[in-house]
Design a protein that fits this description.
Elements (H helix, E strand, L loop, with lengths): L41 H5 L45 H31 L2 H34 L12 H6 L10 H12 L19 H19 L11 H41 L15
Helix pairs in contact: 2-3, 2-7, 3-7, 6-7
């Protein structure tokens, strides 16, 4: 029987749902679709050579779906399979755009870091002013990169839905988490880790909760921390009228170097996660959308 609260299947006669713990109500047997056709008379049945009476004959009830083998697996999936009519669409194009602007940000901040160090060592305010201008231009590049990352994060989250996962953070959080104070420093990274875990090649759909607790590459955390620390430190290295020491150039050097390293790591994270998701789709998308057979670039599933 199906749970009226979450839609999960439970064994016949169970009092509570195995998934959400809700009370189950016994469903009365469904009434027959129509009057039953009279069967053959005993005389006709026993007469040799008499053909069997015409149907329709009552069909046995369909067996219930198999019990989930993995704890917390969402099987069978509840009605309303894909919220918002999501289909699989490779994020490789977005990954390429992110690669271009992340590489540009790495070059710009690398130049700013070098100029900041040179200005600090030579006690040269003119060089520090140029370093500050370069870092300020880097902020503009990061704004474009920020928009691309939001779109990419939403896409890789939506791409999971055809495979029936139980997500902690869905497509709404994939966008909103970037703008909410405090959690914007952590939730986007959690969403990336969620997408990485949910596309583990050994997990077949329906994914359910099988992805929970699986490992993620250390580059995810390194790229995230290096970027946030680097941006804050680099902003200190931008000269202002109140600065009285060229030592701020060292802050520009350290911050610019951290941002440069973070952008290299970000390129690795985005490209590896996108390629991993596409490989998972090539392996399992025919199981959830048999009409689509991805060859080369991933095609759309369901329209």
């Amino acid at each position: 029987m199906y749970c009226p609260r979450c839609g999960a299947w439970s064994a016949q006669g169970a009092a509570f749902c195995w998934k959400c713990g809700g009370a189950l109500t016994q469903q009365p047997p469904a009434p027959p679709a129509g009057p039953a056709s009279p069967g053959p008379s005993p005389a006709a049945a026993s007469s040799p050579g008499t053909p069997p009476a015409a149907g329709p004959w009552p069909q046995p009830p369909a067996p219930p779906p198999a019990w989930p083998q993995t704890p917390y697996a969402s099987y069978p999936p509840p009605a309303g399979a894909l919220p918002g009519n999501w289909f699989y669409l490779s994020a490789s194009g977005l990954a390429t755009a992110i690669t271009v602007f992340a590489a540009l940000a790495a070059v710009v901040y690398g130049i700013g870091a070098a100029l900041g160090l040179a200005g600090a060592l030579a006690d040269d305010w003119d060089t520090l002013d140029v370093s500050g201008d370069v870092i300020a231009f880097g902020f503009l590049v990061l704004i474009v990169l920020f928009i691309e990352l939001i779109v990419w994060t939403r896409r890789i989250t939506g791409n999971l839905l055809p495979f029936r996962p139980v997500l902690e953070l869905g497509t709404g959080w994939a966008v909103g988490s970037w703008f909410v104070p405090i959690i914007s420093y952590w939730f986007p990274l959690r969403i990336w880790n969620q997408a990485w875990r949910a596309t583990t090649p050994t997990i077949a759909p329906p994914i359910g909760w099988q992805w929970k607790g699986l490992p993620v590459p250390a580059t995810h955390l390194l790229a995230w921390v290096a970027f946030h620390v680097g941006v804050v430190v680099a902003s200190i290295g931008v000269p202002t009228e109140d600065d009285t020491s060229t030592a701020i150039g060292y802050a520009g050097f350290i911050g610019g170097t951290l941002v440069t390293v973070s952008q290299v790591l970000l390129i690795m994270v985005v490209r590896n996660l996108t390629a991993r998701q596409d490989a998972y789709a090539r392996q399992y998308l025919p199981l959830v959308a048999p009409v689509v057979t991805p060859v080369g670039p991933i095609q759309r599933a369901g329209g």
